[in-house]
Give the backbone structure.
Amino acid sequence: MNYKKMFFIYLQVLAAISLLAQTPAFHYFDHNKLTDIQGEVQSIGYEEVYGKKSEFLMLSIQSDDQRLFQVEVCPQWFFATDIAVGMKIRIHGSLLQTSANKLYLIAQEISIKGERITLRDSKGFPMWSQKGRSGGQGKRRGPGGRGKR
Amino acid sequence: MKITFKYIAILFGISFLSIAIFYFMNLNNRRAVETQTLALAVSEGKTIEKVMGKAAVYLLEKGESDLIRFMNEIFDNDQVIYIALGRSGRLIHAATKFEGYLPIETDSQSVRTFTSPLGEIIEVTASMRDRFGNAYKVHIGYFIAAIGEIHNAAKKNFLLLTLMQAAIVLLLIAFLFRFNRQMSRKELEVQREKEKREKLQEISLITAGINHEIRNPLNSLYLSYQMLEPLLDHANQEAVFHSNSIKREIKRIQQIIERFSTLSQAISVRREEIDLQQFFKDMQPVWAGMARRPEIINRHEPEMKITSDRSLLTQIIANVVNNAAEAGASRIDIVVAAQKDKTVFSIKDNGPGISKEHVKYVFDPFVTFKAKGSGIGLALTKKMVLQLGGRIEVESAEGRGAEFRIFL
């Protein structure tokens, strides 16, 4: 095997790694690909999804049908609800399939401990970017009756 | 028009209908402004689409990267929210100012608008093919801040106009209602005046009849009495008592006839300067002749003088004082004071007062609330006061006396 061929294989491996990376290259909230999942929080992390703008809350969710989802929630400053590994969670969002077994979801609304938190509008506009919203959480709808759809 | 339930319902109906008409007219205007601004934006978008299409074809000749660079330059514009480039149905480049917000429709054509929290977004989609036949779609989503401002202004104007028009309508209706109420009151007053006039006409007829039918026989009766009186045995106490009784009653009937006549006849006025101190001194014999004499106290500035008809003024004061005494007052205060260009006689008593429902009828002829009243005294008093160019009013409450005020 010559170096040229090895370099070519190396580039292909890099491309494959990039494809398998947790964050897809042109990922956006596709309002035509909405889905609901329900499952358990496997891990909680933070990631600079959109450049260095701010760190996003990322959840790994094991769905009830045993599929593993990487869920992009919102900037970590915007999320004010306690969340822990092992919690049951329900998510409505836009599904992106980055590879055969890697599923990526951009959350529009999440339900946790009976509380519903709206993070984006129906076309994906982020609640944290709305005018006049500075430090709160998304629209909440829970047993307390806060917020509205 | 009489104020009835129907009338009020009509007023409410008209005001509601007017407000509703104004509301829909304003709403229509607001919608027209919104639609027209959007139509303008769409028309502008169509021009952008054509320019974009031509530019993209030209740039694709050089390569995709030139087109992407060009799109990125467009994206740097503040008004642009997102850009996207699709090739053969797949997205090959995109950028957005809001994390993950890319509301494109891959099958959309030309220009579309949709609402977002930022306002109305205009998405221009230009389609083209490169020389290899690959289909490309360029999406540019932008917003025009002025559209939002125009929409907000239209919304504000709509609200302001509707509120203003509603306020004007309500004010007009309130004015109409008040005007109508005043007119109704005036109508009622005119009606009452008419009734009073008719009553006075009746009184005139009755008085004429009394004058004609009773006065002459009464005079004959009095003459007969005068002739009979010296023939009486003055030592007989009973005869003297009955004689005096006859004389008193004849005098009383004569007085009543006199008052009836005065009520229906025109009163002539002869003005002169009256010294009030002397006037009240002259009133003493009048008070002395009263059947029930209460304590009468009069107060006025020393050397106060007025110009009026002495005879009428004496009758006016005597009538009011007499009325209070007959009602059962034990004290009457007469205060005379100058008020602007008028002289005000306040005659206040501590009698039983007049109830609220009776007080408005006290000056009506033949209306009396006393057991032995004729209903002439105060009516005559009012007539005399009016004849002097003044007015008379009364303020009273049951159990708290009455105050008559005469403005001359």
